[in-house]
Amino acid sequence: MGVTLRKRKNADGTTSLILDIYHNGKRSYEFLKDLKLKTKPSSPIDRQTNKENLELAESIRNKRAQELVSSGYDVVTSFKSNVDFIQYFENYISKYTKKDKRNMEGACNRFKAFMKKEGIKSLTMKQLNENIVFKYSEYLRETSQGEGASSYFKRFKKMIKQAVREKVLLNNPTSDVTIKRDDSLVKQVLTIDEIKILAETPITNGEVRNAFLFCCFTGLSWIDVKELKWKHIDLRNQKLTKVRAKTGTETVVNLHSTPLSMLTEPGQQEDLVFTLPSNTAALKSLRSWVSKAEIQKHITWHCARHSFATNLVHYKTDVTIISKLLGHSTLKYTQRYTHIAEDLKREAVNKLPTI
């Protein structure tokens, strides 16, 4: 095991510097392409430049050697521990290939917002500690709804575990910090009666109204309804076929008369079905509408999807069919709606007066 600095003369009168790395019976080479020497320095400046480049190359060689040694022991080199945290996070995401990449990006963006709120201008890997992680978890709880906080923190912990595996971190600062999944989905579900009240309540933005009610009867998420095009809708057979942006799975939903009534005259295949504002503007309009309808629940756009699933359970739809309609990859995510439906029944019974 070792790292040797080697030189190789080039035809253009320069000398390349190369690290010859031998580790675990394998040899590899790292070319220091920005640190070339002049083979025959003709001036004091050339000689000084050669000297500085050699010193820098030797410094890099030492760091690489330290990394090789530390890879066999529980130590972290200063070279790795001084890596910028956000830079490492973004680099991790750039190589991430799983379906929840958008959630991983969301966790990173939330951490950036957290740093801004806390006045943290920069953060190295060695500066990340349990106190910062705990504050980040509290920030997620304060700024997220439903399962958002636990979802983002789960991805954050996944990235940290990878940093520990790569010995960029020696200890895992997230080990003793947890965010339990928020199971208070009952508050975020609209019953059929509440959806009827909402439909009868005036709203300034008709597109937001129609799109939200459409989602309540199709289970589409915000990103999917915003990107919905006429090519996804088969009016003759009253079907919607769309690949979910989040998972990449195809969803086929038979269109009920209610979502069909939310549609305008069909446009070209590539035209959007609904002309919606930004997510922030749509959410503001939605909350104002819910408040005007006097529905005492914290409703977000994703609640339309929850409501669709829960109401299907309420009307005795098989959980396997619901899973397919939602585009879930497993039944695990769908079965939680059976518990929500039972909670709604229990809540309804508890409202009966005592005698």
TrEMBL record:
<dbReference type="InterPro" id="IPR050090">
    <property type="entry name" value="Tyrosine_recombinase_XerCD"/>
</dbReference>
<dbReference type="InterPro" id="IPR010998">
    <property type="entry name" value="Integrase_recombinase_N"/>
</dbReference>
<dbReference type="GO" id="GO:0015074">
    <property type="term" value="P:DNA integration"/>
</dbReference>
<dbReference type="Pfam" id="PF13102">
    <property type="entry name" value="Phage_int_SAM_5"/>
</dbReference>
<dbReference type="InterPro" id="IPR011010">
    <property type="entry name" value="DNA_brk_join_enz"/>
</dbReference>
<keyword id="KW-0233">DNA recombination</keyword>
<keyword id="KW-0238">DNA-binding</keyword>
<dbReference type="Pfam" id="PF00589">
    <property type="entry name" value="Phage_integrase"/>
</dbReference>
<dbReference type="InterPro" id="IPR035386">
    <property type="entry name" value="Arm-DNA-bind_5"/>
</dbReference>
<dbReference type="InterPro" id="IPR002104">
    <property type="entry name" value="Integrase_catalytic"/>
</dbReference>
<dbReference type="InterPro" id="IPR025269">
    <property type="entry name" value="SAM-like_dom"/>
</dbReference>
<dbReference type="Pfam" id="PF17293">
    <property type="entry name" value="Arm-DNA-bind_5"/>
</dbReference>
<dbReference type="GO" id="GO:0006310">
    <property type="term" value="P:DNA recombination"/>
</dbReference>
<dbReference type="InterPro" id="IPR013762">
    <property type="entry name" value="Integrase-like_cat_sf"/>
</dbReference>
<comment type="similarity">
    <text>Belongs to the 'phage' integrase family.</text>
</comment>
<protein>
    <submittedName>
        <fullName>Site-specific integrase</fullName>
    </submittedName>
</protein>
<feature type="domain" description="Tyr recombinase">
    <location>
        <begin position="185"/>
        <end position="350"/>
    </location>
</feature>
<dbReference type="GO" id="GO:0003677">
    <property type="term" value="F:DNA binding"/>
</dbReference>
